[in-house]
Amino acid sequence: MKSTDIRIVEASYDTEDFQYRTPIKFGGVTLDRVTILNVRVTVETRSGRTAEGFGSMPLGNVWAFPSKTLSYGQTLGAMKELAVAFWETVEEHTEFGHPIELGHVLEPQFLAHLGPIGTELGFAEPIPMLAALVVASPFDAAIHDAYGKALGLNSFQTNGPEFLTHDLGRYLGSEFAGESLDRYILPEPKPRMPLYHLVGALDPLTPSDVKQPVGDGLPETLGDWIRRDGLTHLKIKLNGDDLAWDVDRVVRVHDVAEQVQHTRGVTTWWYSLDFNERCQNVEYLLEFLRRVFIKSRSGFDRVQYIEQPTARDLKADRHNVMHEAARLKPVVIDESLVDLTSLQLAREMGYTGVAFKACKGQTQTLLLAAAAQKYGLFRCVQDLTCVGASLIHSAAVAAHIPGVAAIESNGRQYCPAANAPWDARFPGVFTIHDGTMNTAILNGVGLGAV
């Protein structure tokens, strides 16, 4: 037992709804709105000190609960039902512990609600584990935030043996026995990080692509975004079921970027490619890379990594191994990464990197980040169109995990209204000017958002 251990006193939550400035298309679905889940958790230390923590995350149901039979309202409604159940679970939890310990105990209790709620709603398909992780993430973040506030420390500085009773062997297996979590976490954030800008499948690249201007003063084309924000990292959304379109999209994005960067005098910039698991097989990916290489060798050379090209259910898709593709570019798992078992299976199947997301929980992300470092995997942190406090959570994860090359942030593109109250408080985080995010500021008490 540690004197710094906390227990949960009470919890509460609310939701906010926002319309997107422009729609975003991914995984074959067009999305124009978001519901944010905000959570507050009050904790008490063994010595009686109390603190309130705050966590926030978009309920990205289109990404976390894709369905061909259920409507947007039904999948979002299911995640809202999970929020009620998770709130009750957190309120009823009375054990003391470190946030990592509490998160480790609470996660299986959260997952136990999936079956009963799916049955109660009459769904013919199961609610995915990923949906539960997204709903649970603001509860987990609020606990970590409250812990740091109770101790007067940044939460990323509270994972050493003086705070966390057990070593990593308890959470990650015997090969981690004797290792402390803090050896895999930076106590201070990296001062600046390159920002990955999203090029959605519907986003105009040139003025001729603009059919109906938004007219709100923000950039209308990719070239305008690059010039305004000084961008050097572009994440390109691809369809995965139209080879000619996907190849042409990368070539066109590269042509625009090359022209604009030349006028800016910039010689180094990068792309990531995201198929959102839409490729039917790895052969599609290999042929895609071959054609991009032929059509634009310079564009191919600027691809930094590839995200989750094929279906997220790795066990059902064992033949789609990534060994050959990963010899060309790092291939990272995103939707597939839900626990240590999925990480180990991905390694067996040839994946060479991992995409972390704050929406899968602070506890799980820190533990799997330790595993990824030990295994020598490529590391990146991806977005869920995070806005407000959820972007602070995501950016802080990226800034405190060694080896993360850049941070994705697209809320400023699609939902700037949700960021407006936060912009002045976090200069250089929500508004970008030199292609980088000011992550030095992410060192406040707790998780630093409020």
Q: Could you explain the architecture of this structure?
A:
The chain has 450 residues and is an alpha/beta fold. The protein folds into two domains: 6-183, Enolase-like, N-terminal domain (Enolase-like, domain 1, 2-Layer Sandwich); 192-441, Enolase-like C-terminal domain (TIM Barrel, Alpha-Beta Barrel), CATH 3.20.20. It has 16 helices and twelve strands. The chain has helices spanning 61-64, 72-92, 99-111, 114-121, 129-151, 169-172, 222-229, 243-264, 282-295, 297-301, 323-326, 340-348, 362-374, 389-400, 411-414, 416-423, and strands at 6-26, 29-45, 50-58, 192-199, 233-237, 270-274, 303-307, 331-333, 353-356, 378-381, 407-408, 436-438. The strands form two sheets. Strands 4, 5, 6, 7, 8, 9, 10, 11 and 12 form a nine-stranded mixed beta sheet that branches. Strands 1-2-3 form a three-stranded antiparallel beta sheet. α2 (72-92) crosses α5 (129-151) and α7 (222-229) runs parallel beside α8 (243-264). The relative contact order is 0.14.
